[in-house]
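== Fold encoding ==
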Amino acid sequence: MSDNKNANQTPDTGHSWDDGALRELLNEPPGWWKLGMWVSLAWVLVYFILYPSIPLATDFTKGVMGWTAIKEYKADLKEVEELRAPYEAKIKKMSASAILADSELSSYVEKSGKVLFGDRCAACHGSGGAGNPGFPVLADDDWLYGGDINTIEASITDGREGGMPAFGGSLSAQQLDDVTQFVIGLAQGTKHAAGAAVFEEQGCSGCHGEDAKGVTFMGSANLTDGIYRFTPGTAESVKYTIAHGVNDGSDPETRNAVMPSFADKLTETEIKKLAVYVYKLGGGQ
């Protein structure tokens, strides 16, 4: 109701309820409300004139300012690219190892490489290189093929595909259990004589080395550090790998472990950035 006015003296619409106790009045809205409405309508009109606003059949009204979100984005992107240009020009002419040795460029690549890693690598290797089941952790200092900057760059460029034969068909159930316990014991500092004999008889040291610490040029795993690619590294998991191998085409249940080549997916500059970023993630060798 309007202020200082008796409801019985105010015209109404003729609608009433509860024997006239409730009536629909014809009071004018408050002045502040009407002012707000007209200001809002005026702002809508100004906005429609200044900015893109009305969709048409095949286009839209452009507005006298010619502003669009895409234009603003492109202007911001151009500004960022201009700031990055001096660094990008240097990186393009330098090797990954030279970039790593330059503290300023290395710091720049560490930040820009993080975006690349998130887009291209994190789906397999996890955020920050923390790893996922079946994919190596990149944030530690354990490397199958070596962790120097040139090797990391080669891994990204050419990809990797290790291999381990399946022993399930050539070992008895007892032998599988024995060699499994031997492998687990290597990381725990315990010895399993029967398993050691199987390990030697099957020529496992030919790939994993006499000390079982792996051979980098073959990409064979270090069996003494307790780091397992195929988590959780339980006896059953280790036994499965021994029985079915890795990338063994003769065993339909073999483990799959393939790092794709990015030579055709990334530019040389992007690969160098990722190599430096990954190196710094795990304190490369």
Observations:
- The mean pLDDT is 91.
- The chain has eleven helices and four strands.
